[in-house]
Amino acid sequence: MTKTFARALRAGVLMATLGGTSAMAAECIAPANPGGGWDFTCRQIARILQEIGVEQNMVQVSNMAGAGGGVAYTHVVGQRATDADLIVAASSATTTRLAQNAFAGMTVDQVRWLGAIGTDPGVIVVGKDSPFQTLGDLVSAVKADPSKVAFAGGSAVGGFDHLKVLMMLRRAGFTDARAVKYIGLDGGADAITQTVGGFTQAMTGDLSEITGFIRSGDVRALAVLADARVDGFEDIPTAKEQGIDFEAGNWRGLYVPGGISDAEFDRWVEALNKVAASDQWKQTMTENGLDEFILIGPDFTEWVRNNVTEIQEISREIGIIQ
Predict the structure, then answer these.
(1) Is residue 294 exposed (0-12), middle (13-18) or buried (19+ Cβ within 10 Å)?
(2) Is the domain of 114 the same as that of 192?
(3) Contact status, residue 204 vs residue 124, Cβ threshold 8 Å
(4) pTM higher than 0.85 for the full model?
(5) Do 219 and 261 reside in the same domain of the chain?
(6) Among the listed ranges 43-47, 173-177, 316-320, which one has the minimum average pLDDT value?
(7) Is residue 322 part of a domain?
(8) Residues 248, 61, 232: CA angle, nearest 5 degrees
(9) Per residue in 107-153, pLDDT tens?
């Protein structure tokens, strides 16, 4: 080892110690292919963490698609349980799958729930050339012959995107949940491609993951599943305006490995709080149609557990689980 290299190595160790952060670059796993909501969460948070000086190095984003988030969850629990430099994108789809025991026996308590920093209003879109002009048109077509209307979504069968369709249709008076055609894919990008290509008649997703397709004109949004029209997307009517009293928001947040220490968890809590308070995140929310929903640390853990219980009750009610 040369003297120059040895001095540089000692300096690097000292800087990592004094800086209070890991010398390794942090990683954010997006449990789906590029372009969907989890990918959006990772890439935006990764960018902001570096821009505001929380992370010295750019956070690496890794896409790990499969089983509606189950491949990533199993990977973290089984192989990365003590990795303090790892964060993982999560959403309502994650807790839905856990509630329905869709992650091969994995449970909600095998990771640590870091926080949510926004909620993504649900949206139902159709292809630009679709004959359906309103949400009522789409619902009427399902009621007339459900076999002729297929919905695509970025979560697996029984996942949050699927539940949104079933609950929306139920509010509209169609209760035969098993007759509804739904194709579950690995992320919103894959789902929207099915609708743009004409392979499905509609897509149910979240506003942030398909804003580009809406603005490009590749799809038309029939309804946003929010209490009121979303800033920046005022031309999209709510389901309520069209006579269907239904809302569905998809929270955007993170979990971390279950085996990290309290001190390591607290470091990530502080980091995510800084992201949530930043001007960069506020701008990102506005540009992508996100509503504010900030819940970080132990309170979020309790909220997730309650959310899983609620989803289990709904899933039993509509026959997804026993």
Answers:
(1) middle
(2) no
(3) yes
(4) no
(5) no
(6) 316-320
(7) no
(8) 40
(9) 999 999 999 999 989 999 999 999 999 999 999 999 999 999 999 99
